[in-house]
Specification:
The structure holds two protein chains of two kinds. Chain A is α+β, with helices and mostly antiparallel strands. Chain A has four helices and twelve strands; from the N terminus they run ααααββββββββββββ. In chain A, a hairpin with a 4-residue loop joins strand 3 and strand 4 (187-194). The termini of chain A are far apart. By secondary structure, chain B is mainly α. Helices cover 74% and strands 0% of the residues of chain B. Chain B has helices at residues 10-38, 44-54, 58-76, 80-97, 106-127, 136-163. In chain B, helix 1 (10-38) packs across helix 3 (58-76) and helix 2 packs across helix 5. The model of chain B is unreliable at 1-6 (pLDDT under 50). The chains are: A alpha+beta, B mainly alpha.
């Protein structure tokens, strides 16, 4: 029987017996025919979820892209990119409207940075020239390297368990799983999933991340270890240093390249403190990452 | 005769999908910055799932939860099944509350989102327990901050959904 008055509709609605009203607190129902039991629908949808989750794990284990997630990522991509651009534009306008002290301080620090980089550049040029001479001397061909690919960060979804960013480069830009991401400051992480238009980069701070490193002081190696993530905002754990290794706070940590995945010599961070392992045979240290915090990360480079 | 039970309007469903996609875009960018300041972050997708489920029913709540879970899983890229299951259960719980309360009441909406967020976090935590090495204190801090953020956003999201034709009048 059709509800005749608005008041009666409202009363029936509170009792959960009619569908939506134009105003006044209606609700929408999934169909107009006989209703399937909600518990049956719950069971079916949960079953579908479990199957999708299992398929995802299988695809990832085989190093393949999950087509369902890749499709969703492609659909979300324009919105992510739009939001990233809007955020960037807002920041630019904000910085322009409120120049003042912050900008003056930034100018000073940039001038200092430019001076430092000029000096460093000269040193590196000299080193590169010497390396080229030495290579020629031993008859080795210099490896031709594809230049790193700049990638805009369009998403950051930290969770207590995982720490990763999404970048606006995918398979169409020839990005592949396992490629390394870095900034001029240092190592950022590794590409773990790729879809046609975007990729996910697992950050160094992710608890699943570990990278072989060397601890150096004034260019001399002080120790070899593994840097592991401890979650967002946390320092890295530097593990498996030998007891006799002379590692101190302030030493520079760079990638060792021993694993064959991360190229050697990329800055990873700086040693914050060192302590003896509980066994007494090893030392552990904590490392402050060299690369900026994910929140401040707007762009990175994918090393191909 | 059965009382009239109108079908879900296609326009409202499409708008909900669009809202979820926009929320995913915003969340992926803004939420990270927010979490640098407050530890936790709002889960806009979950808030939309919970409010939309509250304004519909348990069956539709499951399906909306499935969509929201798929979006979240696509953004995070890990523990896909856990995100799906937790969002489906949360959508079902919020949808089950529909018809038991006055859904236009702002307090009811906020309380539902609070409860639904807790249910989602608990279900996720059970399906994908914190990994070894993750501080439990920090994990709990993040969960509490997330739930508070979600609750704070419940009424504005409900207002937006109703403006888009999802459910009836505005929250009071």
């Amino acid at each position: 029987m059709r509800a005749k008055s608005r008041a009666e509709r409202a009363r029936l609605d509170v009792l959960g017996r009619v569908g939506p009203m134009r105003s006044g607190g209606g609700r929408l129902r999934s169909d107009s025919g006989p209703q399937a039991s909600p518990f049956l629908i719950l069971t079916v949808v949960l079953g579908l979820a479990v199957v999708l989750g299992a398929l995802h794990n299988r695809w990832v284990a085989r190093g393949k892209t999950d087509p369902a997630l890749a499709g969703v990522r492609t659909a979300v991509f324009p919105f992510q990119l739009g939001a990233a651009r809007a955020q960037s534009a807002t920041k630019t306008v904000w910085d322009w409207v409120l120049p003042g002290k912050a900008q003056a301080e930034e100018n000073v620090s940039l001038k200092v940075e430019i001076a430092r980089l000029r000096t460093e550049n000269e040193t590196l040029r000299a080193g590169a020239a010497e390396a080229a001479r030495l290579r020629a001397a031993v008859g080795l061909m210099a490896k031709s390297k594809t230049p790193p690919l700049a990638a805009e960060v369009i998403g950051l979804l930290p969770s207590p368990n995982f720490d990763s960013v999404t970048v606006a480069r995918g398979t169409r830009d020839e990005v592949k799983q396992g490629m390394v991401a870095r900034t001029p400051e240092g190592l950022i992480g590794q590409v773990t999933e790729v879809s046609p238009v975007s990729s996910r980069v697992m950050l160094l701070t992710d608890v699943n991340s570990s990278v072989g490193v060397l601890v150096t002081r004034k260019g001399k190696t002080q120790g070899v270890g593994i840097a592991r993530g401890r979650g967002r905002g946390e320092r890295l754990d530097l593990m498996y240093l030998k007891r006799e290794d002379d590692v101190q706070a302030g030493d520079v940590v760079v990638s060792s390249g021993y694993g064959g995945v991360v190229p050697p010599g990329i800055p990873v961070g700086v040693v914050a403190d060192v302590k003896q392992d509980s066994t007494g045979f090893l030392k552990n240290a904590r490392v402050v990452p060299a690369a900026p915090l994910p929140g401040a990360l707007r762009e990175l480079f994918i090393v191909r | 005769m059965q009382p009239e039970r109108p079908a879900l309007p296609t326009g409202a469903a499409l708008l909900l999908v669009l809202l979820l996609l926009v929320a995913a875009g915003i969340q992926a960018n803004l939420a990270g910055t927010v979490s640098d300041l407050t530890r936790g972050q709002p889960d806009l997708i979950l808030v939309i799932v919970l409010v939309a489920a509250l304004l519909s029913d348990a069956a539709l709540g499951c399906l909306i939860g499935f969509g929201g879970g798929l979006l979240t899983a696509a953004l995070v890229g890990e523990t896909v099944g856990s995100y799906l299951v937790s969002r489906i259960i949360a959508g079902f719980v919020a949808g089950s509350l529909a018809g038991r309360f006055f859904r236009t009441n702002a307090l009811v909406i906020a309380a539902t989102v609070f409860l639904g967020s807790l249910v989602a976090e608990a279900a996720y935590g059970l399906a994908a327990p914190p990994l070894r090495g993750v501080s439990l204190v920090r994990y709990a801090e993040v969960v509490v901050a997330n739930v508070v953020w979600n609750t704070a956003l419940a009424v504005p999201v409900a207002y937006l959904l109703r403006r888009c034709g999802w459910g009836g009048g505005m929250p009071r």
